[in-house]
Design the sequence.
């Protein structure tokens, strides 16, 4: 059985860069980034063909689980309900780890502007308003929660655990 890491946080927080750095050190993991699936269906479009994108994304995660592979899933999953669905939908993984990547709003917004798939300001603000930091109380279905702070985009991250 493989392991699943859900790497989540606000768009522009540094999730993808963290996942790429992680994969360099742990090549036994597959990096599944929802942005890659959007690009496959839409090119540079932000949110067209959502149903098809998410079905393909979940099928890729499910296939990895059934094959016993380790995955690091790269998506927003902004609240406890969204995050919990990944544990419920993919119980085949042996361990379920939650990695919360965060940074200050200014750095996240500027990173978002430099992405190939820029999230429009109104949508980004709505995401920012609806985001909730995971805790061991709100996200109790996870085997482990790790906070990863993107300090200044130098690929140097500060890693801590919840204080609960």
Sequence:
């Amino acid at each position: 059985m493989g392991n699943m890491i859900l790497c989540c946080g606000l768009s522009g927080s540094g999730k993808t860069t963290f996942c790429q750095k992680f994969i360099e050190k742990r090549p036994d993991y597959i990096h599944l980034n929802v942005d890659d699936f959007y690009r496959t269906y839409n090119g540079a479009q932000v949110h067209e063909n959502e149903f098809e994108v998410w079905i393909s994304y979940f099928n890729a995660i499910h296939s990895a689980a059934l094959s016993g592979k380790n995955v690091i899933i790269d998506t927003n999953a902004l609240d406890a309900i969204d995050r919990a669905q990944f544990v419920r939908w993919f119980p085949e993984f042996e361990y379920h780890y939650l990695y919360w990547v965060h940074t200050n709003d200014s750095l996240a917004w500027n990173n978002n502007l430099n992405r190939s798939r820029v999230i429009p300001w109104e949508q980004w603000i709505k995401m920012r308003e609806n985001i909730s930091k995971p805790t061991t109380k709100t996200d109790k279905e996870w085997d482990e929660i790790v906070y990863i702070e993107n300090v200044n985009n130098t690929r140097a991250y500060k890693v801590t655990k919840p204080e609960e």
About this structure: The longest helix spans residues 50-66. The beta strands are 3-8, 29-33, 70-74, 95-102, 144-150, 157-160.
